[in-house]
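Standup notes, structure subgroup. Blocker cleared on the shikimate-3-phosphate input:
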Amino acid sequence: MRPRRFAASGPLKGRIRVPGDKSISHRSLMLSALAVGESRISGLLEGEDVLATAAAMRAMGAQVERTGEGEWLVHGVGVGSLLQPQAALDMGNSGTSTRLLMGLVASHPITATFVGDASLSKRPMKRVTDPLSLMGADITASPGGTLPLMLRGASPAVPIEYRLPVASAQVKSAVLLAGLNTPGITTVIEPVPTRDHSERMLKGFGAELTVEVDTSGTRTIRIRGEAELQPQRIEVPGDPSSAAFFIVAALVVPGSELTIENVGLNATRAGLIEVLRQMGGDITEVNPREVGGEPVADLLVRHSELKGIEVDPAVVPSMVDEFPVLFVAAALAEGRTVTTGLDELRVKESDRLAVMAEALTAAGARVQETEDGLTIDGTGGEPLRGSGNHSVATHLDHRIAMSMAVAGLVSKAGVEVDDTRPIATSFPMFETLLDGLSA
Ligand code: S3P
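Run returned:
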């Protein structure tokens, strides 16, 4: 454990750049490892989760090499040619690595064992093993359908048409990635749209993939299997989910005026910005452009007097990872913020509803936990009391640690976080950046 107290800070001013997008970084490594030939990736997030994916692709035969800061070179083996890993694949804390790689293994004639840390080993895998079993994979999970888990791929796998029972980009991606090496057409029906990086990148690598949207917004995604992927040069845009902590920090710390450069603004990811604007947040998009086929801008964020709102549950998939830090904004806003439709937050790296309710309450916020959300009565800009001698429990969840660090910036006594180590899974430079701004 590495505890740390985050104390009240002066205004956050200047410019920062956030690291590469975690979702896109994972997919860059996986698809490059399946292309025939050499791909180059720049701006790759070098957090522990992505490094777990890199190690797994190496263990399955790809050459994956770091050539500089965020610069990676990958020699792919080709779809269908992943090799049998010689040891268990250690997924660490990373649900995305686990679920997407299970999809890849499912349609290759190999067997892999997936293991992870205490947090990952509690997370549900049935949502992925169900469709992959239908495709022919043979899976033995631990009781409760969790890791450790052994997956024997099917060769050939059977194409399926699968309607997603949960709004999950990870489940969608697992099926599409399995479809890459499955003869015929694999179809995923997505009633509620989730992040579309897999679709964009599969197309970018040359897979035959189509997306049809009907009048109700349901998306039907079809991929033709036994694809040949072409190597690419990829520039990974900055991660909006990492930017989120600094966006909220600049909004809540009086006097702040902060520019966050190179933030990915794919509509399936940008829900937080819209919700914060509805709360009165002053966020301006500067220099909008495209990076790696994704919309990107620099964000100029100024301290704002935030007001509580009822958050429309329809936005949940487009900000599913940003709720912990939105709760911090709500705790400092004027009036009541009500969130609903957040059942999925209970199965992230921690139960983010229960854990944030407890952590914010310990820091002096007024929070009520409901079955599928939190209701928060904000201070109207007054600093929170802080956590005193109590340290808040982060349960191996990077986003809880960073959210409570932001809460500490607007608190009388500071907020002590019990363990900052998990931050390295997605944002190794977080504390350095924050300390540089608040110094
Ligand atoms: C991710 C999808 C989301 C998100 C996770 C990354 C991805 O999970 O929470 O951090 O890269 O596909 P779900 O799809 O399970 O909601």
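Discussed briefly. DSSP finds twelve helices and 22 strands in the chain.
Next: hand off to the docking folks.
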